[in-house]
From TrEMBL:
Cofactor(s) listed in the protein's UniProt record: Mn(2+)
Organism expressing this protein natively: Arabidopsis suecica
Enzyme Commission identifier(s): 4.2.1.70
Alphabetically ordered keywords of this record: Glycosidase, Hydrolase, Lyase, Manganese, Metal-binding
Protein name: Pseudouridine-5'-phosphate glycosidase
Oligomer and partners: Homotrimer.
Amino acid sequence: MASSSAHSRISNLQNHLSPLEANNKLRSLVKISPQVSEALSNGRAVVALESTIISHGMPYPQNLQTAKEVESIVRENGAVPATIAILNGVPCIGLSEEELERLASLGKSVQKTAGRDIAHVVATRGNGATTVSATLFFASMVGIQVFVTGGIGGVHRHANHTMDISSDLTALGRTPIAVISAGVKSILDIPKTLEYLETQEVYVAAYKSDEFPAFFTEKSGCKAPSRVNSPEECARVIDANIKLNRQAGILFAVPIPKQHSAAGNLIESATQRALTEAREKNVTGNAETPFLLARVNELTGGTSLAANIALVKNNALIGSQIAVALSQLM
């Protein structure tokens, strides 16, 4: 009876909260930096940034340098960066320089945190670097509409045997935020990933291209479902998605700049070798992508890491321009 009574009280509380009150209650559970809070309150452009790329994407201090440069690009293009992470159990939306330094220096000792892991990391007062799915959750909670990342997760190769499909895809299907990425990582099964995104009702468009990009390279061999040609066009799509109250997200796939595009054959050869090694070593789950990216970087003599950094910076540039254009519509 006591449990039933408690459940009833919670239900009554929820029923008496207006949407605004409910949103404010959720916001009270996170720490929003003063800069991000002010920008959101004044309708300025804000760009969400994930933190797994910092902790697991590259070594220290290169990860810190890259994170600072990406945030600078966002600022230089008129938006406010909001790097998201969980520190000592507190979800942080926008990191100070000290917090960014701490996250970068902790590196892989920080838990890679997908959407499913959020409650556990918070409950145990742990440190968590957010993946795409977790970053989407927190960005949506505070009202950020644009999120920049390197590449989203997807359907893994041999998923017909392993059932390994990233929660990034289902999170995109239920979170009305625009993600700007260089497509999906080429270590994944790109055709199946595009099919899965279609099932999740995610609008997918390539930026100034008819072909869907493959992260390290401009082309994947897959035709993009749609095409957009400017930040303003992207902003109009996001604005319409919001006004129509669609609950699915948007993926704008931005090809890596030509001058930084890695040789496709070199990357693909290294990817195939890394995939074979991962299977031989039984590397699975959320450990697989960091392993594959690190191994591909080794096999390509650092070419893939240099390409990774270049595409993230380019995505930050385009994403900031989209966020600014969106702020002018709202």
